[in-house]
Automatic annotation (TrEMBL):
It holds the Pfam family DNA_pol3_delta2. Its EC number is 2.7.7.7. This is DNA polymerase-3 subunit delta. GO terms for molecular function: DNA-directed DNA polymerase activity. The lineage of its organism: Bacteria, Bacillati, Bacillota, Bacilli, Bacillales. Keywords: Nucleotidyltransferase, Transferase. It comes from Alkalibacillus filiformis. The keyword Transferase applies. InterPro entries: DNA_pol_HolB, DNA_Rep/Repair_Clamp_Loader, P-loop_NTPase.
Amino acid sequence: MTTTWSTMREVQPVATRMLQNSIVKDRIAHAYLFHGPKGTGKQKASLLFAMRYFCEQAEDQYSEPCYECSSCKRIQTGNHPDVHFIEPDGQSIKKDQIEYLQKEFTYTGLESNQKVYILHQAEKMTTNAANRLLKFLEEPSRQTMAVLLTENIGSVLNTILSRCQRIQFHPLKSEGMYEQFVGEGIPESTAKICAALNIGLDEAKELSQDGWFAEARRIVIQLIDKVMNPKEEGYLFLHQVWLNHFQERHQQELGIDLLLLWYQDLISYHLNREDMVVLTDQLDRLQQYQYTISLNDAKTCVYELLQTKRKLAYNVHNTLAMEHLVLQLQR
């Protein structure tokens, strides 16, 4: 489904209005920082904004790009020569990536003097990379625009924050997301999970058709059974099964998120709020374990899971982080 300002306005009305106003009033800033949780439309908005910036057929009084010209189509497919994308190389965005970008920007644009760079996960820049980027932001060119994307604005250097126009993307309402997902043919159980985790429509569709995700959900429940039963070997299961399945960083984070959902559902069950349970196929297990783990213990487990997410974000080794987590969940 093509992303337009109209569809963006339905989920992010304030951010969309700010971006459209900057276009209509010809007050496009040299640098923007799109910040907000995962799945709130930051990446789609950055591409839409870039399309409008380069669109060959958009009329001045309208802020919608045409979606049909050569520039619009190439930006949508990631092939425009004057739109550059920077993503983490491994666990971070490194100094040499920014230096390469600087070198590219010393050349005249291939089709015009306009250039845009979109930097994903800006919070993962090393200090040296961030300091290099400041040169762009301190010496802006009228025809150069930067769009930085982040889920964690608190980890972006203040010197960079002060030089960007901030556009906040708010968490989406899970009820509306769930209805949208089901309407797109995504199974209800997967739709509930994706809506609760603020996962975007495209990724939700991929997960619904991915055997890896179905297996991930099964392994999460198996791990919970292991740590809940003192006779089971949760530590052994971690090494024999969990670590082999959740290998990539995004997979590891998704595994933690699924565990979080289960323990949050247990808290809801303790509070007699079954209407808030996301993993509705786990009601029998929740009923069983409410006698094994108290409300306070469930809250402690949620805290430990959030701590593990933070450790992974700060590049603590996944095996060490998960070993510590399993020990804490078994107590």
